[in-house]
Every structure is written in structure tokens, then in C-alpha cells.
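Predict structure. Input: Histidine phosphatase family protein, 163 residues.
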Amino acid sequence: MTRITPPPSRIYLLRHAKALRPAPGQKDFDRALSDEGFAAAEIVAEKAVDKDYKPDLVISSTALRCRQTAEAIRRAMGPSTEFRYVDELYDATTDGYLEIISSQVSEGSVMLVGHNPTIEATLEALIGHKAYVSALPKGFPTAGLAVIDATPSGWVLTDFVKK
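Output follows.
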């Protein structure tokens, strides 16, 4: 398991919702959410609010599908949650995601809205392979939200919210 010393003491990892296939000549970066993706993002955002999951800071990739997923979170959580959009999340490595998380030393909780396979690998790096495979044997689904808490023995997956 990867060691990130709190703060933050809670990490939310949100994989963007289902996106459309790229149109001919369209850049991957510019792919929008599908109708199913828009609906799933809204459902997961509302479920998160119902469970009182409210990060101090949301950091999203600048890719269109991540920004659209983050907007569902913004609508559900209201104006008190701070949002940042970071280009590096688009094609970052797991180490890049972990570095962004660990640099948030003034926030109690942080949410990353990002891409697979990096979001999945980041969760696995935090909680360990065995815990990851046990919790998500079919992988990290689109619009899935992992809630990870710091404990004295390391990071633990507390909950997984999906549509």
C-alpha cells in the first residue's frame, strides 16, 4: 500500500461517467458524456450527498467528460465545495495522481475526478491489491466513487458508490 500521510484523511476517487465514442477526427480529450453517462453522474452525485460525502476540494481532469462529471458533483454539493481543474490529470500516471492527492495538505478531504486505468491503479496503490480485487472484482466502473479513509494501519476502502 502507498503511504500518504494525512491530511487529507479522506480521499474520494471518482471515475468519469460513460462517454461517447469519439467521432471521426475528434480528439479523445473532447469526448462528451453519453446520455447514460449524464444520468449516472447525477445519480452518483445525489447518492454521495445522501451519504453526507462532501469533499473539501474537488480536483478534476480538464477533459470534457471529467468536467461534465464534476459538474454533476457541483450541482449536488452546492457552492461551498471548492473545484479545481488540472490538465495533468488527463494523462497522469498513478504516481501523478498520488502526488496531487498528497500535496493537498490543507484539506481534510479531497476528490479526484479522473480516468481509467489510472483511477483504478490509484485505488489499488492506496488500499493494496488484495483489498482492491476483493472489493471490485470486475474493475472500477464508470461513474464509480471510491471513498477511502486513513487509518493507523493505512488506507481503507470505506464505501463504493455506483449508480
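Residues 55 and 152 are 21 Å apart (CA to CA).
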